[in-house]
């Protein structure tokens, strides 16, 4: 006959033993979370205080998680962060750049607010106030990033049974402020091209003249809708100018981990971002010009590169673009502005579904919300439809015609 085992976390009858000096020891056999029975004891001035101290020990022991740094409700928040980061590395599912971003957001945005709290003290209300304050004082984006890492860390705490529920589940929804998506006009694109052609090409300027890569990068962004990191990751093997129209394959991105050199990551932001697209003639023209420079390089060589043939970094390209445009009085244009412009142009001509496909989005709703400039003009066909409500239309209906 197999005896039923005592459930984990239960204990038998408490034994009390008087000690010299008048104190009392309370002792009990307790089945720990590894399944083994152990003696747990506590001492108090009286029988009642010894029992209270013993039950306190048992409560703390029940909330402990063996093998995971002994995380429990009374663990300090930094202890959870350390275990969470270790778990991210163990799972090894994140790209290096994403892993670095998560840690930076946790340490810079979240840790200053919660480092002196235990897990038990980080309640729904405290998290809710923290995120709303961060959204108001900093930005909605920062609050959203803080919410992401907090939710992941506390999700781990729940899985490890350190706490019962994730406090992020009960917070109020972060209300995103109204934002107007702005695409560049044709005239603005022309002005940008002119500014890039003239930048640092006047006589008497110190230093080397621009090598033309910045202008070419902009033309590729306008012809592909690709993100700046994706454009900088295009290799010789990713382009085909022998077809009509020419094609470009997006299959990677440039990342710059903290303290390390930039390198090509063999996958872009999402799996859907891997795509091959036909490009307009102006983009094919600059690609052919870049290929001429790379005629003696192998197929893995990047289309755009530094003087040392290393990857260009997105941050440096953004800085150069900002400087070039500012010299001609153009401000506020970022590489993402070209992506929004492409999305809006394609949507106007062929609909949001095709724009989403070109941008590598999983849903056209993402494209509509973040990348397409709203068109305030209602389809002119409504005027023709509403003619039925005019005097002539109403008379025709009443007469049965």
Textual characterization of the structure:
There is one protein chain. Helix content is 46%, strand content 9%. It has helices spanning 47-62, 77-91, 96-114, 124-137, 140-159, 186-198, 213-224, 228-232, 281-293, 314-326, 335-350, 352-359, 364-370, 381-386, 391-398, and strands at residues 15-18, 24-31, 37-44, 239-240, 247-250, 253-255, 263-265, 275-278. The strands form three sheets. The protein has a three-stranded antiparallel β-sheet. It has a three-stranded antiparallel β-sheet with strand order 4-5-8, with no helix packed on it. It has a two-stranded antiparallel sheet with strand order 6-7. β2 and β3 (37-44) form a beta hairpin. α4 (124-137) runs antiparallel to α5 (140-159) and α12 packs across α13 (364-370). The mean pLDDT is 87.
């Amino acid at each position: 006959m197999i005896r039923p085992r005592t459930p984990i976390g239960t204990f038998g009858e408490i034994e009390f033993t008087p000690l010299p000096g008048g104190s009392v020891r309370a002792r009990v056999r307790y089945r720990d979370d590894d399944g083994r029975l152990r003696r747990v004891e506590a001492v108090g001035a009286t029988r009642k205080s010894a029992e209270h101290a013993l039950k306190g020990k048992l409560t703390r022991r029940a909330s402990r998680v063996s093998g995971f740094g002994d995380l429990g409700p009374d663990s300090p928040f930094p202890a959870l962060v350390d275990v969470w980061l270790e778990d991210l590395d163990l799972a090894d599912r994140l790209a290096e750049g994403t892993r670095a971003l998560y840690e930076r957001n946790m340490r810079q945005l979240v840790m200053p607010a919660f480092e002196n709290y235990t897990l038990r003290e980080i309640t729904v209300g405290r998290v809710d106030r923290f995120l709303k304050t961060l959204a108001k004082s900093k930005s909605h984006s920062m609050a959203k990033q803080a919410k992401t890492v907090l939710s992941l860390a506390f999700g781990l705490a729940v899985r490890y049974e350190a706490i019962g529920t994730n406090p992020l589940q009960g917070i109020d929804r972060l209300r995103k402020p109204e934002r107007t998506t702005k695409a560049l006009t044709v005239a603005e694109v022309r002005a940008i091209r002119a500014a890039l052609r003239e930048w640092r090409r006047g006589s008497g300027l110190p230093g080397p003249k621009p090598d033309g890569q910045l202008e070419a990068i902009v033309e590729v962004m306008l012809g592909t809708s690709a993100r700046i990191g994706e454009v900088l990751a295009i290799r010789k093997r990713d382009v085909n100018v022998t077809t009509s129209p020419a094609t470009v394959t997006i299959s990677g991105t440039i990342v710059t981990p903290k303290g390390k050199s930039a390198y090509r990551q063999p996958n872009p932001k999402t799996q859907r971002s891997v795509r091959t697209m036909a490009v307009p003639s102006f983009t094919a023209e600059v690609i052919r010009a870049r290929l001429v420079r790379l005629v003696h390089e192998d197929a893995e060589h990047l289309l755009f590169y530094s003087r040392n043939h290393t990857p260009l970094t997105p941050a440096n390209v953004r800085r150069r673009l900002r400087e070039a445009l500012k010299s001609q009085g153009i401000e506020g244009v970022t590489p993402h502005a070209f992506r929004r412009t492409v999305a809006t142009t394609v949507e106007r001509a062929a609909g949001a579904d095709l724009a989403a496909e070109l941008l590598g989005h999983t849903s056209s709703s993402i494209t509509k919300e973040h990348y397409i400039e709203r068109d305030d003009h209602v389809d002119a066909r409504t005027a023709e439809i509403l003619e039925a409500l005019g005097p002539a239309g109403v008379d025709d209906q009443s007469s049965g015609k």
